[in-house]
Amino acid sequence: MAPRFVQASVQVLSFCLVAGQSLKYGLKGQEVKFKPPIQPEQQPDHILWMHNENKVVEFNGNEEEVFRTFKNRITLDWRTAELHLRGLRPEDSGLYELEVYLQKTSRLYIYNLQVIDKVGKPTITCETNTSDSSSVSGLLTCSAAQPEVEYMWVFDGNTQPGPQLRIFLGREADEQVYSCRVSNPLSNQTATFTAQDCSSGAGSSAQLVLSIVLPLLLLLLLASVAALVIYRRYYKGGRRGSVEGNTPPGPLQDLENNKVSLKNLSPQSQNHETRPLLDQRRDDESAVLINELRCALIRDGL
Fold this sequence. Notes:
Its main location: membrane. By secondary structure, the chain is α+β, with helices and mostly antiparallel strands. 37% of the residues lie in helices and 32% in strands.
């Protein structure tokens, strides 16, 4: 091991390296390589890799020992101290420190690793705005499942950063194609959107409203018609029952009991008496009853 004063010097050096160390990225499930600037002919006497102050692997000049969750996932080059880490996990993120005892000198190298997901294909949505009667515009929104990604819109030879983009709609503008590119340091994906789809999306919303409202109106109309038919049948049936119940079989009985009174009935008086009944009931059943009454009069020779 290095003497105390060497360790103190290493700690100062560590602080300086951490302050100026750039971030290293690795894709989840993939492999990352840490390559310190050590030549193979230098042959380190001692190698120690640590992750967040926990040992990863140690080489004492004769053999190596792998620690904890890094077993079966790392490869250490004894000549260059290069470390290969496979099957990256989110918990593998953090500081990696390499302490090398080389030619009686201790050296320290520090790497900052961040494990990230591969960017998935983004989705583009459109929201129309018709508040201005002179023109119709749309607001495109690009979204991705992964956090900390960069958004870039590409259209008609132009670029615009950010997840949202305001566009114009109508006529020639509907033919414009917009591309949204999302990216992180190791991957990127692109989705495209045609302005016409934004207009059709608004039309689809209107069609959806009509498809819901029209059937409801039709059902309401049918219910109203059915209620009217039921009411008329019930109302006419009630009146017919009232007429038949309160009107005695007078015409026929009068024919038998007092034929003279029937003879004295003039056609004008008959029309005067029967016309209110015809005005009250203008249906087939009323006509049948009147015809039966006339047939009875004729049959009796009146």
